[in-house]
Fold this sequence. Notes:
This protein is 31% helix and 35% strand. It is α+β, with helices and mostly antiparallel strands.
Amino acid sequence: MSYSTLLTPVFKTYEIKKSTFHAALYPVADRVAAMDVLAREKVRFPDARHHCWAYVLGNPSSPTNQGYHDDGEPSGTAGKPMLNILHHGDFGNVVVIISRYFGGIKLGAGGLVRAYAQATKDVLAIAEGVPYIPTTTVALICAFEQEGWLRNQAIKYNVVLNEFVYTDQVQCVASIPDSVLTSFVQNCQAQQIQIHQA
């Protein structure tokens, strides 16, 4: 299954029985980034009773890494339902944080599970993403007269070139879609362009 990456953070508020659930969905590259976002949300909602979270890295249906936390809610009523919704969503490399303000009416374990799941669904429903394309990053070195050819090949193969350095040669970093990696590399090698691990 292919998946999408989130373009920008999104936010949505869900209310039930006077309790307010502020959901935030952020793109993240790793667990450290997810915990940084959690700290940011705690600053945004300092009086919230709970800051529950879940994240998935990689394909949401079979993540390379994942985690969740109930943050004081009864075990299994917040983070796990949030993670379950992420597993069935379209977005990988994301963290969802829900900051809850208690409204005075207890929801019960089943009510909490439904509320956290619904808040997660609501924020995912308004998220915008782009398809995730696996890439390989390499360093390229070519002569000045080859730069035009290299840029044309990059357009042809949907390769992103950046970090250009001009000395007696042209050096840059290329992000190459894995689906065209072999063809692009062979074409560069045929032109005597040097390729190194970035």
